[in-house]
Fold this sequence. Notes:
The chain has a 6-stranded mixed β-sheet, sandwiched between helices. Strands 5-4-3-6 form a 4-stranded parallel β-sheet, sandwiched between helices. It has 2 domains: 8-38 and 156-304, Rossmann fold (3-Layer(aba) Sandwich); 45-153, Rossmann fold. The model has no long low-confidence stretch (mean pLDDT 97). By secondary structure, it is an alpha/beta fold. The termini are far apart. It is built from 8 helices and 10 strands.
Amino acid sequence: MPQIASSVLEAIGNTPLVKLQRIVPSGSATVLVKLEWSNPTGSMKDRVAKAIIEGAEKKGKIDPGRSTVVEYTSGTTGISLAFVCAAKGYDLHIVFSDAFSEEKRLTMQALGATVEDVKSDNKKITEKLIKEMIDRSRIISERPNHWWSDQLRNTDAVAGYYPLGEEIWNQTGGILDAFVQAVGTAHSIHGTARALRMHKNDVRVVAVEPLESAVLSGGPTGSHKIEGIGIGFIPPLWEPSEVDEIIKVTTEEAKAMTRRLAREEGLFAGTSSGANVVAALRVAERLGPSSSVVTIMVDSGLRYLSTDLYK
């Protein structure tokens, strides 16, 4: 008998895992990519949004029909929060910026969110911009019946990615040697890796960050244009001891790989996914043909058509 979900939220997860065919050089490890755009809004952030809202419900911090959720976002988490809030009956107030794609703004608004901007410096993603967005959302959250989800410091968020790790483990049959993921809040890399290491403690965990703002590697803060990662300062819940290596990728490398993925693999993704694959290929080359590497296609390229990514 066909199964019918009682809520759209039940459609989150169980996304495909696909082997790259054409861009992996001969002699490298197998590279597998998790197609997280198969989630309802087209990104992995549906997982964390559901975990954040349900965590707040369990703690009695929000009530449907009465509470307004407040968040700062580059758009991907904001879209997912808008989706979850719409499904559950919460209002949502988003602090956004013109540094991020217009598609994200329109999608959040379509899902019922109120969106306000913090002006960027020529569309650059910088520490100053992110901290201004955070501060503005904190001020808004002080209004009556408003609750600040504060994604960078939200301890419910990591658990939202445990199922992602379990899915990867089951889909690979436990045959994987490395997991590669770009760092924004750090929730996805930590949650996924913790689930994988419950099964195999020696899975190599590789973080990815923009070369132009390589703060995780001890470099200076800077500006870049890889949306969703590289916030310009150390994320509050970052756990460096849980990561074996950090790979730095330039904005141009990430964009070039994202275009290659579309043209050579038929994988239509955003820029952070391109950064993931750049790093995964470097790891795969070192590990050699008897190994396998898993990384994430974070979101769909449909969110970036108004940017220079595909122009």
